[in-house]
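## tool: complex_structure
## caller: assistant
## args:
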Amino acid sequence: MAKIILTGDRPTGQLHIGHYVGSLKRRVEMQNSGEFDKIYIMIADAQALTDNADNPKKVRDNIMEVALDYLSAGIDPDKSTILIQSQIPELTELTFYYANLVTVSRLQRNPTVKSEIQMRNFEASIPVGFFTYPISQASDITAFKATTVPAGEDQEPMLEQTREIVRKFNQTYAPVLVEPEISLPDAQVCRRVPGIDGKAKMSKSLGNAIYLADPEDVVRKKVMSMYTDPNHLKVSDPGQIEGNVVFTYLDVFCKPEHFASFLPDYSNLDELKDHYRRGGLGDVKVKKFLNAVLQEELAPIRERRHQWEQRVPEVIEILRTGTEEAQKVAAATLADVKQAMKIDYFDDPTWITEQKEKYGN
Ligand code: ATP
Ligand code: MG
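## result:
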């Protein structure tokens, strides 16, 4: 069976380092591994509108931002197909049919949607579109017959929902859909990167992110303002590592060679953590180290972004051709789906003959 990737992001803001380690960096690795037959990367603008219906400008403005983030992170348009969700009506049509296979109570149990509803203060007035976005996500994944979805931990319930829809569809109609697997980062800490304010998830909607496009001085300021251990007041105080996001980000980004380059008094992260726990190591020193580590990772991405920003007409063509190519694939799947559901009347000679015979002509 072909190995196919479908993954994407909502154009609700620029992409941040949580997206990068949770999904984007691995997409680039998977793209360059040559192990996959096709890679589709979707800018999920229709999904973004489900909780931003009154702010289409935000979504529209962020299409290019996300595309530039992809290209600067190393997505290669010759190897991966970048598409814009709303421009492929077949995805919406699939959603309409899949919706018949999902119950309201099943959607209500989705823990990610539950917490997103809380986060957005939607409790009493959830837009139907938002409530049902897991179904639309099943359409996006299955339209491309994706086998693999590289994503962060918050996407697990969506993948479970997709697999249920696939099984139900294949059982009820005919085996045309493919069950996808989520591909999570190996390191637990990369599956849900916390925000710089210590909140559980770095998110564009919470304003607690370090963006891939942030200039050097903005990254430095954000690092210096990061949440650490609120009880670690004096340098001599013993400090706590758990819940201290500076150390969480070091867990994500720090490699042993960074010590030789930026902090030669220590040889590895465990030593640094031990000293912090014992007391005698100040936040500023650790933050300066983290800043150096992050700048090293982000500098090449930032550099490539400056280059791509000079080539916007080319980026628009990449999006246009990617979307056109993807639309053809989605149309083929939709045709299979309608045939399986026996609602392909005009392409079905049996239906035509039956009607004629029934009425004797
Ligand atoms: P929004 O707040 O608009 O939902 P978001 O920051 O959650 O935005 P999405 O576009 O919903 O971003 O997610 C895109 C991808 O990035 C998904 O695969 C998601 O799992 C992953 N991702 C998002 N935030 C994080 C994070 N903090 N840590 C790890 N992965 C993340
Ligand atoms: Mg999200």
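## assistant note: The chain has 17 helices and five strands. The mean pLDDT is 96. Handing back to user.
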